[in-house]
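Researcher: We're teaching a course module on how sequence relates to structure. For the next exercise, students receive a sequence and then see the predicted structure as tokens, so they can try to spot secondary structure elements on their own. Here is the exercise chain.
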Amino acid sequence: MSAVEAPPVTSGAILRFLRVTLHVGFAVLLGVGTIRLLLAPAEQHGRYWFLALAVLLALTYLVGTVAEKRFSTGSLQRNPRRFAIAWLALITLLWAILMIGSVEFSWLVFPLFFLHLHLLPRYAGLATTVLMTVGVIAAQWISAGSSLPQLPVIVGPFFGAAFAVATSKAYQLLYADGEYQRLAADELRRTRAELAATQHEAGVLAERARLAREIHDTLAQGFSSIILVSRAARRSLASGDLESTEESLTMVEATASENLAEARNFVRGLSAPALAEASLVESLSRLCSKTQREAAARGGHLKCSFRLDGEPIELPQPYQVTLLRAAQASLANVWSHAKAGSAVVSLAFQGSEVTLDVYDDGRGFEPERLTDTVVQRADGSGFGLRSLRERVMAQGGTLTVESAPGDGTVVAVRLPLETDVSEIQGDKHE
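Model: And here is the predicted structure for the students to work with:
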């Protein structure tokens, strides 16, 4: 059975223990003096007046300590520290009067030492400690009735005062350390709260960026395709070509169904529906066929083909989604902007990386203007390459775009593999 570790002792716990000890010591010494006063001969002059003063001293001390405790716990709003000097002066005056009535009250000087050294400025506390020590020595000397004060009468109060000064210094150091720890704890809590808020905000922004990428690469492209195919269907219907109209409407229905499936997967936080039904290779091949049919349904002529290099291996799901979305976004740019006659999607497993290249023979553009394409325009477009680059970089890959006016465009995605593909293929042939 393992031993249970005790919680660490903090400076705050030590300070609370010392305060409780001080209050208990004051109460015990006051009680002892009061009892000795009660046991004194009944004919002692002013006996009941001194008893009343002892009760008043106890109540005054209690009021001050309770007020300080309530303020430290937050149940008292006004800080009683402003009355500390007046409170200390009152209990010191009551103690001095009581010491005149009975020397037994002189021992109350030890807890008073700590109060003076703690509440008063340094030199004022030392001065009052010296004065109270002299007063106790004088009271003990007068009570003893000797011509000269005995050594214990001097040594006892002197060492008591010296011990009080040393202990008070240690208390002040502990108090300063406790305040430092409290401030540090407050700062830590504040920093943690700010960090939690920052992490929450970063999470919200990351989720917004993820949804923006998914919507752009799926729903936005699907809706754009639906609009273009619908326009083609309207033209076919106006010209009386019912067969083309039916093909266009079929394409609209299929694209809308795919968009609905994508939207439902966004809600569930799942991967692309196409990857749930087929492998990455099959999904890319189907995407090429679908792109070609959509181009034909819009009245265009785009030949889209898929090519596989190397023996495919099972890729992590994030890799598969990234490569599929890259192909979707690139082909969407081909039929939207390139005015190409052919496009080739190439997936290659080579060495320590998997690559996806999308080539078209369209009109191309100047690579220097690529920075303009990654800035989102007012109509919500212009998000494609930026979205694709963020998606690829999130998987530790690279995205390059090569193009020139009139020479077509190549979008190349490179994703690193933890295991060399050639090693896997070699194992399969053995």
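Model: If you want an answer key for the exercise: The longest strand covers residues 342-350. The chain has two domains: 11-149, 197-429.
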